[in-house]
Amino acid sequence: MLPKLIIVVPCYNEQEVLPITAPLFREKIMSLIEKGKISADSCVMFVNDGSSDETWNIISSLSQADSVYCGISLSRNRGHQNALLAGLMEAKSKCDITISIDCDGQDDIDAMDEMVDEYLNGCEIVYGVRSKRDTDTFFKRTTAQGYYKLLNKLGGEVVYNHADYRLISSRALYELEKFEEVNIFLRGMIPMIGFKSTCVSYERHERIAGKSHYPLTKMLALAFNGITSLSIKPIRIITGIGVIFAFLSLLLIVYVLISYFCGRVVPGWSSNLISVSLIGGIQLISLGVIGEYVGKIYLETKQRPKYIIEKRTSDNESE
Ligand code: UDP
Ligand code: MG
Questions:
Q1: Which uninterrupted H or E stretch holds 8?
Q2: What is the pLDDT of residues 116-152, one digit of tens each?
Q3: How far is the CA of 214 from the centre of ligand 1 (A)?
Q4: Which ligand has an atom closest to residue 212 CA?
Q5: Does domain 5-230+304-318 have CATH number 3.30.300.30?
Q6: Per-residue DSSP letters for 11-48?
Q7: Does the Cβ of 49 fall within 6 Å of ligand 1?
Q8: C-alpha distance from residue 26 to each of 5, 6, 45 (Å)
Q9: pTM (2 d.p.)
Q10: What does the domain layout of the chain look like in residue ranges?
């Protein structure tokens, strides 16, 4: 039996680009069906992440016009990661494989052929990896690559140059569902599922229309979230720094005592001030980092829902 594919597409205020990319996703599904790789009831599922523009209306009319499209709408904006997870969890019981992709046309949809081939070869997860980063600015490129390296050094297993364009089988999604954390960073969580997996490379293009929803502040938040939800090494590093400073201050005390008994007591105002402010600074940073983890624990203990589905395009059909 051929596997059923659902392409999961999170959308937030994408009224400009959705009418352009939706037919591209449809074409891809049709060509995969024609090639005999996926079943004829495969479809595209849009997740409206609480958009304030016409996005949901576009999704509704697409689904009314063509059964290859369907969609769910979240009760409010919950961010890319939660929207994607909502789509994957909705899709898992309805298909054999999902491919998640952004709706802005940046990721090359032709890589889907190879992804499906790899699934047919026995892989449960196939990561889309960017071969080049020409379309990114120099700043985004260098910071992103430095970040991947840092994350891996800190013990988080992330696939280099992979964003959220990937194939996941429904079997792997049922395992992902068991990860109950609230602070989600899918790029780091999915490699933890395990199973046979592989990478497929593709070229990333410019956004077809509309603008990015990841300004620097959101990017930094995602980056920081990535580190603190995958690794506790920063806390260990701080402990290490604390130990080194404690040892140094011990030496300092010995030196001061010796100076005192030798009668060489100096005003020492400047050295005092420097050490106090230096150690004070380090302590504040350390508290901040520890506080970050404590905050995470606080959010996790509340176990709030990660998203709430308000409506589905299938609701219209039953009316
Ligand atoms: N997105 C979302 N919720 C948000 C922000 C973004 O669902 O709060 C979706 C957006 O519609 C797009 C994808 O996530 O399909 C990636 O966003 P974007 O293209 O703006 O990010 P970039 O590619 O610039 O990193
Ligand atoms: Mg984009």
A1: strand 5-11
A2: 999 999 999 999 998 877 777 788 788 888 888 888 8
A3: 7
A4: 1
A5: no
A6: ESS-TTTHHHHHHHHHHHHHHHHHTTSS-TT-EEEEEE
A7: yes
A8: 12, 11, 11
A9: 0.79
A10: 5-230+304-318
